[in-house]
Amino acid sequence: MNPVDARPDLFDDQARPATGRRFATRLLLRVSEALISLLLLAALCFGLLRSAPGGPFDTERALSPEQQSALEQRYHLDRPLPSQFAQYLGNAVQGDLGDSFQYPDYSVRALLGSGFAVTFWLGGWALLLATLIGTPLGVCSALRHRGPVDGLISAGAIIGIALPKFVIAPLLILVFAVSLGWLPAGGWDAGDWRMSVLPIAALCLPNLAAITRLSRHAALEILASDYIRAARARGIEGWALLRRHLLKPLLLAVLAWLGPAMIAVITGSTVVEQIFGIPGVGRYFVQGALNRDYTLVMGVALCAGVLIIVTNLLVDAARAAIDPRLR
Amino acid sequence: MLRRGNGPEPASLDAHRAQDIASHSVLRDLYEGLVSEDAEGRIVAGMAERWEISADGLHYRFLLRPDLRWSNGAPLRAEAIVASFARALNPQTAAPLANLLTPIRGARASMAGDASQLGIRAIDDHEIHIELERPAPLLKLLALPIAMPVNLAALAQYGSAHTQPGKLISNGAYRLQSWQPHAGIVLERNPNFHARASVQIEHVRFVVTEDASSELRRFQAGDLDFTETVPPARLDRLRERFGSQLRISPYLGSFFLGLNVQDPLLGSSPELRRALSLAIDRDILTRYITALGEQPAYGLVPSGIEGYAGARMPESGWTQAERLAEARRLIDEVRSRRAEPIEVEIRYNTSTAHRRLSLAVAAMWRQALGITVRLRNEEWKSFVQTRRDRRITQVFRGGWIADIADPLSFLALFDGAQALNWSGWMDPEFQSLLDRAEQDADARLATLQLAEQRLLDAHVLIPVYFYTSRHLVHEDLEGFEANLLDRHPSRWMRFRAHKQATP
Fold first, then answer.
1. B311 touching chain A per CB within 8 A
2. Structural domains of chain B, count
3. Were B91 and a residue from A66, A148, B131, B215 both cysteine, which residue would form a disulfide, CB within 3.0 to 4.6 Å?
C-alpha cells in the first residue's frame, strides 16, 4: 500500500469521534439559532400587524357593537396582546395556526397546505429545469468564450433577465393559449398537467437566464485558475478536464445560488400566480397583509421563515459534502 | 359545463357571513330564499309559492311549496327557515348584512341578543308569517343571501367547515361539488330542487379571476363562457374586437366624492363645496377617464329604480360654461371672506382607476378655481378607517353599490344615526324625511326623493358618475340578461344546441 494513501485511514480512528461531536454541536447550535430567529420573526410580525391601522373586520359595512364583540371573542382579540401572542405561539407549536380572518371557512393550515403544495410543484420544476438546462448552457458559453455561440447565449440570457415576469407570462399566454390554442390560458385543476406548463415556463425562464449567466461566469473564472492551467499543462483536456476539475467548483456556485433562488421563487410567485389564476401561496404574502388577516400573515411568515432556514441548512450541508474546506 | 369568471376568491360560502360579491354569486346558485330573482332581476317565487301582503304593508304571509327539500333529500320545513333567520340575526353569527333585515319586527333586538320578539313565525310546516316594524321592500330583501336558509343541522355537526364539499347542504338549483381555494368552485345540478326540470346547465364552474386582463385572455382562449368584468380600455376598441359579446349596461352603483363637513374649511363654506362640484366636468371624466359607458351623475341614486324618478342637482341642465361661471363666482365669494389660500386634499384608496380620476379632478379644480389640490392615496384598510374617523379627511373617494333596488340603499349612507356617515353631516330635516318615509308605505318613494333633494342641496357629496356593469359573454350562451344589480343566476342560462355537444 502506498503510505501516502494510507494516511487518512491512520488518522481516521482519532478524527472521526471528534468531527462527529463537532458536527452534533454545530447542528444543535444551528437549530437553536433557527428557533430564536423564528421566535423573533413571530414577535416582530405580530407587533407590526397589530400596529397597522385598520383591522380584519374594517369593511365598508358597520357591524353592531354586539356583533363586533362576538367576533373579537371568537378570535380572542378581546384579550391583552401579550396573552394573545402567547396563546398563538402555544397553538402554533402544536401545529394549529388558527382560522383565517378573510376566509373563515378555512383554517390557515388548510390554506397554506394546499397553497404550498402548488407553489412547490411549480417552483420545483421551474428551478430543476432551469438548472438542468442553464448550467450546461453556461459552461458551453464559457468554453466558447467570445465566440458566436457565447454571444448568442449571453444575449439570450440578458434578455431573459431583463424581461419581467409580468411581461413573459402574458406573452406566453397570448402565443400558446390565445393564438395557437395548445394550452389553457390559466386556471388550475389538480392533476391536469397542461395547466402547469405555461406557469412553469414563466417561472423557469428568468431563472434559466440567471443560472446561465452565473455558470458561465463561474466556469470562466475556474478555467482561468492556476490548477486548470496546471491540469492543461499535464495534458488533461476535454471531458476529463470538465469532469475532474470544473464540475465540483461549478456545482458549489450553482448550489449557493439555488438556495436563495428557491426562496425567491416561492415568496415571489405572486405575479405569475395572479396572471395564471393559480392557487399557490404567493398571493397570501401580499393579500394577507392587505386584508389584515392576522392569522394568515403569521402563518405565512412562520412558514417562510422555516423554509428559509431549512433551505439554507440543506444548501450548507450539500456544499459541505462537496467541498472539504467547508467542513 | 358553464365556466363563469367570478372575480376574487369568494370569502365564505356561509350565506349569512358572506358579504363579497364573489361569494354572493355562488350562493345565489346554491340557495334559494323565500322569493328569488329571475334573469332580469325581477322578484319571482322561490321557496314560497305565493304570498299575501296586508293593506298596511306590514304583514306578509308566505305559503311554501309542498315539495321543498334540502339538497340531501331531507324535507325542508318552515321551522328550519325561521331558525335560519334567527341565526342570521344572532350577534354570535356576526353577519355583516344582518342589519338589512332590521325592518322586520324584533330584528334589531335580535341583533342585540334578545330574539324573543322576532316577527318571523312558522304557522305550520308550509306557512311563514313575517311582520314588519315599518314599511320596507321586504321581497327584495328576502332574495338576498342573508335571507337564505342555512342548514343548521350541518352547521351544528361541522362548525365552520359546514361549507365544505360533501358537507354543505343547500336548497337551490345547484349543490356544491368541489372547492379549491383561489382556483375555483364547481357546482352540480341539485336533483332535489323543485324546479330541477327547468335547470338546463348541469355543471357550473366559478373560476377565480383576480386580474381583469388575465380574465380577458382566458375568455379569448375559450376557457371562460363569460367574464366578471372587462379591463379598462377604449370602448370603441372593445366593441370593434368583441362586437355583440361585449355587454355593457347600467349598474345600480354610484361613484361620488364625499366632503367631510366636520373639516373646518369645508364645513364652514357650502359655497366652496358647491364650487368644487360645479367645476368638475363629468362628461370629460366619463368619456376619457372611466370610458366604459358610465353616465355622468348629478344625484346620488342612479336612475332605473322602479317608481323612483330621483332628485338631481339644478346644474344638471346647464352647459359646462354656465357651471364654470357659477363656480368662479362662488370661489370669489369664498376668497373675499378668507385671507389664506384655499387648499384641499383628495384622499382615495390605492388603485390606478381612482388615481386617474383624482388627478383629472384635481386638474379641473386647479384650472377652474385656482386652488391648491393635494392627492393622498391610502391602502384600503387604512383608508376605510380614516374615512370613518372623519378627523383628517377633506374630499374623499366615495362609492356605493346597492344591496337591493331601493333608494334607501344609498340614502342610508348619510343617515346621521349610523356609523357609516363618512361626511359627518347631521341634518334634522333629512332625518325627519327618512323617518316619514318609514311611516307611510304609499308615500315612501316620494318622501325618499325629497330626502335625496335635501341631501344634494346641502352639498355634502359631489356625484360623479353612475356605474356600468360590463361582461364578455360567449355568443352561444343564452339567458344572460342585463339587470340593474348585475346578478346572473346560472339556472336561467343555457347553451345554444351545438355548444352542448362539446365536452
1. no
2. 2
3. A66
